[in-house]
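Problem 3 from the worked examples.
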Amino acid sequence: MLDDVFRIRRLEKPTGVVDVILDTDAYNEVDDQFALAYLIRSPERINLKAMCAAPFLNERVQSAAEGMEKSYQEILHIQKLCNGESIMKNTYHGSTAFLSNEDEPVISPAAEKIIELAKEQPEDRPLYVISIGAITNVASALLMQPEIAHKIVVVWLGGHAYHWPHTCEFNMDQDKAAARVVFGSGVPMVQLPCLGVVSHLTTTEPELKRYLCGKSELCDYLYRIVIHEMKYRKTMCWSRTIWDISAAAWLMNDCFTADSIVHSPIPSYDGHYGHSDTRHLIKCVYQVNRDAIFDDLFKKLVR
């Protein structure tokens, strides 16, 4: 059984190279691609041990299973743009459906790989599981093998800031049962809320054009997918939030974020948080340094 002393120690910002699993619904929109490329292009800081495809369901796909498969293919595509080839051996299919309840996992290669790598991890070196989609794969792994909680730190972009009137953010809303499992599991966890916190991570067409266009096939692709998405905006002036990069940036020593220790919230099925001071402790980010993060991101993308 973990205690809060252990959790707080685990939630200190790591130094040196860290072992990471990325769990991503990469085809859902355009910011996951930036986050994945950011991690791949940070080998001095990130040892990316596995990439897992997360399910999603929106207007781009007909089912959560199709969302997961298209995310898997998009992960391979970004890998190829970064490295010249796809590292398929480190890429895993995730859940084909969201959790039907809080007791039954969705078994998948991704959930099994999270368990395998967690068990292999040294006791004094946590495995950071970065989730930037519905947290189904991570919740399933914790339901299958709860004991891995003492080997991992979950870093999740999900939910909105606690002062926000609701929690109906896409990642949390897709699988509320999975969110409740992870927040209730006692696993050391860093939460990056969307609206009210990492929503400050916006960029614009002139900025993307200035720093990415013509630099590489990867940079051109990232620029193009944002411009393609934003061309349907009805306003002449626009900015695009690339908030998924915040989960990667939390691990970068030179990208300042401010966070605090709080009691784990209780996501409700009606789209709100419950709070109790008897809950275990997690870390919640409440401020991000937008300029420092984008500066680091663009420098690494153009390598």
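Problem 4, a separate protein:
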Amino acid sequence: MLQERILLTPKDILEKEFKIDTRGYRPQEVDKFLDTIISDYEEMILMIKELEKGKKELIDENIRLKQEVRNARMKLEVLRESGNNEVSNADLLRRLSNLEKIIYGDK
């Protein structure tokens, strides 16, 4: 998906040959090639920014979910220590299953 947005490969740049006029390389051909390279670099910069943004969002979500798990474990520990027999093992397993679905998604 992201590769389709880049026109040139490093090999394309390395192997590019320009036609030679009497005074050297054709300036229009060189300028057109450089414009393509500039366009690719701009696109790569945009892609990197998009990926960094997505990475930050995933890290933030991961931190939030880890905090939810910590809170759930603390609540579970408090319930165990309180000696409250109203919570059964089935209730605990159901709650743990719900937390796993939140963290890992429905599979």
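Solution to problem 4. Residues 3-104 form one domain. Residues 27-82 form the longest helix (56 residues).
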